[in-house]
Amino acid sequence: MPTPTPTFTDDQMDTVRAFAAPLHRTQRSAFVARVADLLRGREVGPGALHRACALVQREMFIAPADTVRRVARHDRKIAGSPAR
C-alpha cells in the first residue's frame, strides 16, 4: 500500500508558497509536488517542511544571468572630471 501524500494546513501552504515565490510561475506546481513527495510518509512539522522546501528551492532555482557589466571603481568616468 503506497504511503499517502501529505495534506498541508493553510499555514504550511503559506510556507510552501513563500519558498516557491522566487521560482518561475511554471515551476511552482512541480515545486509543491516535489515537496509533498519528500514529505510522503513523514510527520510534517515546521522544521521538516522548512528543510524540504529549502532543498527543493535549491534544486529548482535558476539564478538570472548577470547582465550588468562590472567596472572597477577606478575605471568609472566621473561627471566633470578631466578625460584620461
Topology record:
Elements: H1 10-20, H2 28-39, H3 46-60
Helix pairs in contact: 1-3, 2-3
Question: Could you describe the 3D structure shown?
Answer:
It contains three helices and no strands. With 84 residues, it is mostly helical. The protein has a domain at 10-60. Helix 1 packs parallel to helix 3 and helix 2 packs across helix 3. The mean pLDDT is 85.
Concise summary:
This protein has 84 residues and is mostly helical. The protein has a domain of 51 residues.
Percent range for β-strand residues:
under 5%
Q: Output the number of helix runs.
A: 3
Q: Residue-averaged pLDDT, rounded?
A: 85
The first-to-last residue Cα distance is 76 Å
Given helix and strand content, the structural type is: mainly alpha
User: Which bin fits the share of residues in helices?
Assistant: 40-55%
| Main sheet makeup | none
Tally of extended strands?
0
* Spatial extent as radius of gyration: 21 Å
Low-confidence runs of at least 5 consecutive residues: none
Question: Shape, please?
Answer: elongated
Q: What sequence of helices (H) and strands (E) makes up the elements? A: HHH
